């Protein structure tokens, strides 16, 4: 099994696939200026309707340390981890970010994102366990655009069969896109770290199929 080193992608090449096989992940680098990213981060942190997430694991309902919010078109619903959520209506800031993201990835996906799941990590003690976004409501081979704001955090991929790993350090204003068969073959996670003392907001834009 090969373990890939940390990748600090200061010179992104969106046309290159970061995964060695069985999926596609493209890095678009930092898509906002520091001033824009700072303003978006502050606005989202202070105005989004954050709440601690509830998930069902092995039949037991638990409350996560991180906080989440779900926004989208027309009160669209999304079920994951045993819980169904109803989207809050888009606000102007999220719509502006969404339009910028869609413009950047138009070369691989001209589709319209109809929802966004946001996660707020207070510091490095909060993370996201290994999982994949393979819910039926996302359709076959979903396109998921992930934007990071705030503290830099390690984001890892692990192949479901070979256990091969790839680690990325995602920074303030950076956009990556997971598509192709990625969710079928790879798990991903936000790794915890005692060295991270600042919050991070992650926005994952996706399309819920009707």
Biggest sheet, open or closed, and with what strands and sense?
Answer: 8 strands, mixed
Based on DSSP secondary structure assignment, what is the total number of beta strands?
15
| Structural class designation | mainly beta
- Assigned CATH class: Mainly Beta
The number of distinct structural domains comes to 1
Percent range of helical residues: 10-25%
* Proper CATH architecture: Sandwich
Report Rg.
16 Å
How many DSSP H or I helices? 3
Order of helices and strands: EEHEEEEEHEEEEEEHEE
Envelope shape: globular
Roughly how many Å apart are the termini? 40 Å
* Mean pLDDT over the residues: 90
Fourth CATH level, the homologous superfamily: Alpha-ketoglutarate-dependent dioxygenase AlkB-like
Strand content: 35-45%
Question: Which blocks of ≥5 consecutive residues have pLDDT under 50?
Answer: 1-10
Find the CATH topology: Jelly Rolls
Cofactor: Fe(2+)
Keywords: Dioxygenase, DNA damage, DNA repair, Iron, Magnesium, Metal-binding, Oxidoreductase
Protein name: Alkylated DNA repair protein
GO molecular function, one term: metal ion binding
What features would you describe in this structure?
The chain is mainly beta. The protein has a single domain (about 25-205), classed as Jelly Rolls (Sandwich). Helix content is about 15%, strand content about 45%. The chain has helices at about 35-45, 90-105, 180-185, and strands at about 5, 25-30, 50-55, 60-70, 75-80, 85, 90, 115-120, 130, 145-150, 155-160, 165-170, 175-180, 185-190, 200-205. Strands 2, 3, 4, 7, 8, 10, 13 and 15 form an 8-stranded mixed beta sheet that branches. The radius of gyration is 16 Å and the shape is globular. The termini are far apart. The model is unreliable at about 1-10 (pLDDT under 50). InterPro entries: AlkB-like, AlkB-like_sf, ALKBH3, Oxoglu/Fe-dep_dioxygenase_dom. It comes from Neisseria wadsworthii 9715. Its EC number is 1.14.11.-. Its cofactor is Fe(2+). It holds the Pfam family 2OG-FeII_Oxy_2.
């Amino acid at each position: 099994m090969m373990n890939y080193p940390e990748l600090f992608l200061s010179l992104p090449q969106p046309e290159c696939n970061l995964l060695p096989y069985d999926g596609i992940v493209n890095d678009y680098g930092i898509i906002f200026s520091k001033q824009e990213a700072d303003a978006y981060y502050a606005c989202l942190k202070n105005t989004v309707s954050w709440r601690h997430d509830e998930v069902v694991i092995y039949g037991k309902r638990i409350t996560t340390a991180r906080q989440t919010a779900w926004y989208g078109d027309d009160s669209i619903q999304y079920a994951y981890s045993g819980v169904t959520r109803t989207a809050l209506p888009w606000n102007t800031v999220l719509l502006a970010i969404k339009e910028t993201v869609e413009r950047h990835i138009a070369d691989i996906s001209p589709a319209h994102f109809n929802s966004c799941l946001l996660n707020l990590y207070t510091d490095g003690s909060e993370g996201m366990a290994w999982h994949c976004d393979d819910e039926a409501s996302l359709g076959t081979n979903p396109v998921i655009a992930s934007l990071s704001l705030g503290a830099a955090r390690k984001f890892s991929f692990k192949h479901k069969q070979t256990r091969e790993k790839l680690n990325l350090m995602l920074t303030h204003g950076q956009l990556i896109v997971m598509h192709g068969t990625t969710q079928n073959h790879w798990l991903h996670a936000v790794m915890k770290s005692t060295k991270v003392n600042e919050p991070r907001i992650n926005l994952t834009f996706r399309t819920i199929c009707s």
